[in-house]
Amino acid sequence: MRDESGKLDSKRGFLCGLGAGVAEAVVVVCPMETVKVKFIHDQTSANPKYKGFFHGVREIIRSQGLKGTYQGLTATVLKQGSNQAIRFYVMTSLRNWYKGDDPNKAINPLLTGLFGAVAGAASVFGNTPLDVIKTRMQGLEAHKYKSTIDCAMKIMKHEGPMAFYKGTVPRLGRVCMDVAIVFIIYEEVVKVLNVVWKTD
Q: Which of 24, 57, 91, 93 has its CA 20 to 30 A from that of 109?
């Protein structure tokens, strides 16, 4: 995805993030999030039916099949795809801005963390509405919604536009720290691998 000079531009960073987000949504995030959301909702109900996490997974698959772990797949793909696309776009843009005309200019890990936090904040504001929809589609009351679009329309009609930003502040703190740490670790691991594999 890099150009002839080895530089990854923002558009290509966006596409890389989008591809990574869609892949992680299908393979890992959707089944894990669906089970997590159902388990949390079950545990807060008057009569919980799941005795533990693994019992919950077994019961969901037994009663609903593997499909039961993939509720809200469209919303999850949209959320994860946009999530990573925004993060990679912002991170790539900031890195390229900082490096300017010198692609070999080193970036301090703290600056990488700052750029990661900004990328995390951008992803929170950019896709919290999709996260709200995804969570509704995966909850125990998911049967209320015919589709992702139906869910979005019902939220808008019954709760208004601000409902799409529920949980933004707590999510902002967690995601900014998370993305900052992930990008710092990623950059440091890449440096080590470049030395080990003698790619520089």
A: 24
